[in-house]
Write a structure and sequence with these properties.
The protein is mainly alpha-helical and 228 residues long. It has helices at residues 6-11, 27-35, 48-59, 91-95, 144-193, 199-227, and strands at 77-81, 101-102, 110-111, 131-135. The chain has a domain at 6-59: Electron transport complex subunit B, putative Fe-S cluster (3-methyladenine DNA Glycosylase II, Chain A, domain 3, Orthogonal Bundle). The strands form 2 sheets. It has a two-stranded antiparallel sheet with strand order 1-4.
Length: 228
């Protein structure tokens, strides 16, 4: 039976928005910092007070208010792309940590509302500012049960996103290696057919050049004597 680590137990209590508001690159890095005692339990605005209480219970720490010097909780909102303004740059697709945006280069993009975590990471990269946030009109949206249900789905999407990125990077590395392997023989062949000049040949060229220079000097001196 697999052993569930403390990091995994902490991560299971986080909302999995991967928004970075806690100061880390995602929920898992924040969970690691909590497990190591490097961060307080009040740095996750999407988790809210319920999340703080859950973390406090798990880690046997006192319940504290959300950090006043960081982002504050707010009603969840989903990203919506104004499709008539979208230029198809794909920057929002690259920024989305759960692949909730679909589209292609120079084609209209759209957000899958059921998969959007409201992380807002797609807003900044958009060069034409065509992404809006629409509040979720559900009075029960912030309840812990719904937050954790969404977190489970978001974690799965995030893990799939990370796996796809790793595959893409591996495929890119493979293609580059293949191109390098094809180019190497051609470079070697060019080098082998290029004229080679040995150090002996160079020395001989230098010696002959010096002899010519000496002969020219001697001829000039002889001509000067005749003039006198």
């Amino acid at each position: 039976m697999p052993v569930i680590t403390l990091v995994e137990r902490i991560d299971a209590l986080l909302p999995q928005t991967q928004c970075g508001q806690c100061g880390h690159a995602g929920c898992r890095p924040y969970a690691e910092a909590l497990a190591e005692g490097r961060d307080p339990i009040n740095r996750c605005p999407p988790g809210g007070d319920d999340g703080i209480r859950a973390l406090a219970e798990l880690l046997e720490r006192p319940v504290i208010p959300l950090a006043a010097d960081g982002p504050q909780p707010k009603p969840r909102a989903l990203a919506v792309i104004r499709e008539d303004s979208c230029i198809g740059c794909t920057l929002c697709i690259q920024a989305c940590p759960v692949d909730a945006i679909v589209g292609a280069a120079k084609q209209m993009h759209t957000v899958i509302a059921a998969e959007c975590t409201g992380c807002e990471l797609c807003l900044a990269p958009c060069p034409v500012d065509c992404i809006d946030l629409m509040p979720v009109n559900d009075p029960d949206d912030g309840k812990r049960e719904q937050v954790m249900a969404r977190a489970q789905q978001a974690r799965k999407r995030y893990e799939q996103h990370q796996a796809r990125k790793a595959r893409d990077q591996a495929e890119k590395a493979r293609r580059l290696a293949e191109r390098a392997a094809v180019a190497a023989p051609a470079v070697a062949a060019t080098a082998s057919t290029a004229p080679q000049t040995s150090s002996v040949d160079k020395n001989e060229l230098i010696r002959k050049a010096m002899e010519r220079a000496a002969a020219m000097r001697a001829a000039k001196e002889e001509a000067d004597k005749d003039k006198k």
